[in-house]
Specification:
The protein is an alpha/beta fold. The chain has helices spanning about 5-15, 60-75, 85, 90-100, 115-130, 140-150, 165-170, 195-205, 230, 260-270, 270-275, 280-295, 300-315, 335-350, 380-395; strands at about 25-30, 35-40, 45-50, 105-110, 135, 155-160, 180-185, 210-215, 240-245, 255-260, 330-335, 355, 355-360, 370. The structure holds pyridoxal-5'-phosphate (PLP).
């Protein structure tokens, strides 16, 4: 058997489908975000990053950096073990207290990433409930889908953000059967928002539990950065809120928050929590500093909202195909994988602007796009340069200016 050839063929398939991923090598410059250095072909060039999930620039915030470096100095860098084997540091416990408070819940449990928190959290809850039926939004993130798969439970998919379809599905299920509704608040590729209150109404009517991924909202929405559920005053109606410490909070790690018993059950049963080394104290301390800062400071959120509005207005004004939405995510539609890659390459090479192409399977085929994430640290001059660069790229590549409809389901 020629094992090697199988891998070569697998890579060839990716290439022929325009799915082969090329990563730009970026060196972030603390204190100068969104500027970064791009390393390619032995050269280093200064660029502007327009696609970071460090949505508020908290990854370089002085309080956050200080928390990490000081904790590293006092506690060292590693966790020393799993949570059970000497890894339950004071820093992790403090972080969990901050997160429970952020979401108005009894308890929170920290994982090494948001991905792991979804995979382990969903699989564990669903497995504990006898014959649980999972109702999953069509656009849910891969980490939720993997959690569903791992649970081994039955799953039905409801059309994206479609309450009528969700209700139709719920109506057809035995009222006594345990049900868990899985959805996100801000969907990261289209930048649209789930009808959280409506989903909670249905959950109550049909006796279902709710699990909400607020990964793209925590830190950025709500008076204290508790997410869309906080902004819409429905946090107490959602059973489990999941979030990341790696996006707006700018660090690393993920978590679930909920009632004491639910969180305790996940703690006791989730392999992805039990059998892996805990978050290191410097990382936990930095994340806690970021969460704490954003609870008290609205300046980053206001700055982001302002620069997002200005970016959308500038791109719309230039006739670029911006997908309308009310969040910080600004998708500019292209609709073809190789053109999307070509546009991204040209932006980087000619204009020193980094926006990675978003292609299948991250988004459905035919809805390939550039996904722009303005931060409070992108200035009006950055926005003007971005607009000029996109106009040049659209003309040079003959790209369409039509905003086609949302993805097929
Ligand atoms: C990024 C992402 C995650 C995973 O979070 P990480 O902390 O990056 O592992 C989970 N859910 C959604 C919707 C995401 O976009």
């Amino acid at each position: 058997m020629d094992y090697r050839q199988f891998f070569v063929n697998a890579i060839d398939r990716l290439q022929s489908e325009n799915r082969y991923r090329v990563f730009a090598q970026i060196e972030r410059a603390a204190g100068r975000f969104p500027a970064a250095i791009w390393h390619a072909d032995g050269e280093a060039r200064e660029i502007t990053v327009w696609c970071s999930n460090d949505y508020l620039g908290m990854g370089q915030h002085p309080d956050v950096v200080a928390a990490m470096t000081e904790t590293a100095r006092t506690c060292g860098v590693g966790a020393g073990g799993t949570r059970n084997i000497s890894g339950t540091s004071r820093a992790v416990v403090d972080l969990e207290t901050e997160l429970a408070d952020l979401h108005g819940k009894d308890a929170a449990l920290v994982f090494t990433s948001g991905y792991v928190s979804n995979e382990a959290g969903i699989a564990t809850l669903a497995k504990l409930l006898p014959d649980c039926l999972l109702l999953s939004d069509a656009f849910n993130h891969n980490s939720m889908i993997e959690g569903i798969r791992r649970s081994g439970c039955d799953k039905v998919v409801f059309r994206h953000n479609d309450l009528a379809h969700l209700e139709e599905l719920l109506r057809g299920v035995d009222p006594a059967r345990p049900k868990l509704i899985l959805f996100e608040s801000v969907y990261s590729m289209d930048g649209d928002i789930a009808p959280i209150a409506g989903i909670c109404d249905l959950a109550r009517r049909y006796g279902a539990m709710t699990y909400l991924d607020e990964v793209h909202a925590v830190g950025m929405y709500g008076p204290r950065g508790g997410g869309i559920a906080e902004r819409e005053r429905v946090m107490d109606r959602v059973d489990v809120i999941e979030g990341t410490l790696a996006k707006a909070f700018g660090v690393m790690g993920g978590y679930v928050a909920g009632s004491r018993d639910i969180v305790d059950a996940i703690r006791g049963y989730a392999p992805g929590f039990i059998f892996t080394t805990a978050l290191p104290p410097p990382v936990a301390a930095a994340a806690a500093a970021s969460v704490r800062h954003l609870k008290h400071s609205g300046a980053e959120r206001r700055g982001q909202a302002r620069q997002v509005a200005r970016t959308k207005a500038a791109l719309d004004g230039a006739g670029l195909p911006v997908l309308a939405g009310s969040t910080h995510i600004v998708p500019v539609m292209i609709g073809d994988a190789s053109l999307c890659k070509a546009a991204s390459d040209r932006l980087l090479e000619r204009h020193g602007i980094y926006i990675q192409p978003i292609n299948y399977p991250t988004v459905p085929r035919g809805t390939e796009r550039l996904r722009i994430t303005p931060t409070p640290l992108h200035t009006d001059a950055h926005i003007a340069a971005l607009t000029d660069a996109l106009v040049e790229v659209w003309a040079a590549l003959g790209l369409s200016r039509a905003v086609f409809a949302q993805a097929a389901e």
